[in-house]
């Protein structure tokens, strides 16, 4: 589905980022996998051509985009998957933690998008080496926590609400240039971040282990399962492809039906 496309993925060495890179490569894309380190949150190499980039550092973002410009001339797909989660209420959250959450989740999305847009514009109008595509696809990562809130995730919820609004704004601004902008809003996905949430003393497991909480988490979902990184990669792949040519400005919730239910009916 992505033969000949050039893609850049942030947070590419996390659980979801790795799955996206691997799927893109299987679909024929050339992938620039960006993160703070080759290992990221998981040990071992991952799919894609690794490129060190700090989404909170504008100079780092500019340097990465300059490399893509020099090597490819354009960019068809950008996936803003980098993110962090702090398990605290507003009262418990320090200003430093609040600012760090926004720096990675919201400002990182802004900076990477800002400096990728000229390359994506070139792809949308058929520029770059070897020709281009009639459209480009920018995919942000929101969360179902941008619509409803889990307890003890105040800063995280706030950042994801910001990403949702930014997604709509960019879709309006850049749609006329042939750039589609969407956000994926996952629920519970089996990643290192989820395991940290379960093992934490915050709103997750209150110190419990992921093994003791798996059944409880499944049972709050209508489908009685939680998601995998590959589930997310499936949707990202479609949104990145030309099959999704009419999809833009939307917040795609992928949560096993969790946010569809009246919560007290789980009792």
TrEMBL record:
<dbReference type="InterPro" id="IPR036291">
    <property type="entry name" value="NAD(P)-bd_dom_sf"/>
</dbReference>
<dbReference type="Pfam" id="PF13561">
    <property type="entry name" value="adh_short_C2"/>
</dbReference>
<protein>
    <submittedName>
        <fullName>Short-chain dehydrogenase/reductase SDR</fullName>
    </submittedName>
</protein>
<keyword id="KW-0560">Oxidoreductase</keyword>
<dbReference type="InterPro" id="IPR020904">
    <property type="entry name" value="Sc_DH/Rdtase_CS"/>
</dbReference>
<dbReference type="GO" id="GO:0016491">
    <property type="term" value="F:oxidoreductase activity"/>
</dbReference>
<comment type="similarity">
    <text>Belongs to the short-chain dehydrogenases/reductases (SDR) family.</text>
</comment>
<dbReference type="InterPro" id="IPR002347">
    <property type="entry name" value="SDR_fam"/>
</dbReference>
């Amino acid at each position: 589905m992505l033969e000949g496309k050039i893609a850049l993925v942030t947070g590419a060495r996390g659980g979801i980022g790795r799955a996206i890179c691997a799927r893109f490569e299987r679909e024929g894309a050339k992938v620039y996998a960006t993160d703070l380190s080759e290992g990221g949150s998981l040990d071992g190499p991952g799919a894609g051509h690794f490129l060190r980039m700090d989404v909170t550092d504008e100079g780092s973002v500019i340097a990465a985009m300059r490399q893509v410009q020099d090597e490819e001339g354009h960019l068809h797909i950008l996936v803003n998957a980098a993110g962090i989660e702090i398990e605290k209420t507003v009262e418990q959250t320090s200003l430093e933690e609040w600012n760090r959450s926004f720096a990675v989740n919201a400002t990182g999305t802004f900076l990477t998008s800002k400096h990728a847009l000229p390359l994506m514009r070139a792809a949308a109008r058929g520029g770059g080496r070897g020709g281009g595509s009639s459209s480009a696809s920018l995919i942000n990562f929101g969360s179902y926590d941008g619509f409803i809130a889990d307890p003890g995730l105040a800063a995280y919820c706030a950042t994801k609400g910001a990403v949702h609004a930014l997604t709509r704004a960019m879709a309006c601004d850049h749609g006329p240039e042939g750039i589609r902008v969407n956000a994926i809003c996952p629920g519970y996905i089996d990643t290192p971040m989820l395991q940290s949430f379960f093992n934490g003393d915050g709103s997750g497991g209150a110190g419990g282990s992921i093994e003791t909480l798996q059944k409880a988490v499944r049972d709050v979902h209508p489908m009685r399962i939680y998601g995998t990184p590959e589930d997310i990669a499936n949707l990202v792949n479609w949104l990145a492809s030309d099959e999704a040519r009419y999809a833009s400005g939307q917040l795609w919730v992928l949560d096993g039906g969790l946010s569809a239910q009246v919560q007290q009916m789980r009792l």
